[in-house]
Design brief:
Elements: E1 5-11, E2 23-27, H1 36-52, E3 60-66, H2 75-86
Parallel strand pairs: 2-3
Antiparallel strand pairs: 1-3
Helix pairs in contact: 1-2
Length: 87
């Protein structure tokens, strides 16, 4: 499976904003994912996959970058991509 999602993890410095949740930044450039509806769907699916995964904790910042548009983004595809990116 070709990697279309990358993940960068760094320690969180500011705990004042939403202390119980991890900080998540998602970059889905319009040059990579052409239509805004698809970009928004990918962002929603990444947020849902992060919410369901116990790996992500509030003490860190997570930066996701979409490198290539997935063919059919669904929750299972995104969860598999995140699992691969965590390795």
């Amino acid at each position: 499976m070709a990697q279309w999602l990358s993940l960068l993890v760094s320690p969180r410095k500011d705990f004042r904003r939403k202390p119980g949740r991890p900080k998540i930044v998602i970059a889905a450039p319009s040059t990579v994912v052409r239509f805004a509806t698809r970009r928004n769907r990918i962002r929603r699916l990444i947020k849902e996959a992060v919410r369901r995964d116990p790996f992500f904790r509030a003490e860190a910042e997570y930066f996701f970058k979409v490198r290539r548009a997935p063919e059919s983004p669904d929750l299972r595809t995104v969860e598999e991509a995140i699992r691969e990116a965590k390795k």
